[in-house]
């Protein structure tokens, strides 16, 4: 399970990079650019279509998942540290903190249960997040499989302020999925409802 621990460390360390007040996206550290993705899918294998007045549907070209996201959120499937990142727009001209979601997918042993997967990952999180405190957690049925959702707060890595992290853990067909939403703790989250809709739209 060492690989699982390393994968989750990337999720949380990615959160550190994205949540700094300077607000430099991970990809910008390597490319110096932050261009919005081209959602024109005429000649693209990545199917992005409007599913409602609020969400667009993205279908993974490898057939592993689908997810919806609002058209004014930035969708990036070229990240080195996650399968994708979906970043909120600024709430106003003074907003320097952007909420975001990301997804990790990894190959795992066929006998690994979601309970095993959660325990290994959360043990690593508790070591990595200073002042870790759980807000809520539950196992439940999702897409016909047992899944786990948790919300917790703390300071990941070298962060100097608390964030709130919501994560969904799923295991299916030899793959582990971790969907993460990060927001700033102690502030009203204007995008919480939208983030919940994105979470609910995720299918694997």
From TrEMBL:
The lineage of its organism: Bacteria, Pseudomonadati, Bacteroidota, Chitinophagia, Chitinophagales. One of its GO terms (molecular function) is calcium ion binding. InterPro entries: PsbP_C. GO terms for biological process: photosynthesis. The keyword Oxidoreductase does not apply. It holds the Pfam family PsbP. GO terms for cellular component: extrinsic component of membrane; photosystem II oxygen evolving complex. It comes from Lacibacter sediminis. Residues 54-204 form the PsbP C-terminal domain. Residues 26-57 are annotated as: Disordered. Residues 30-53 have a biased composition (Low complexity). Keywords: Signal. This is PsbP C-terminal domain-containing protein. Residues 1-19 form the signal peptide. The keyword Signal applies.
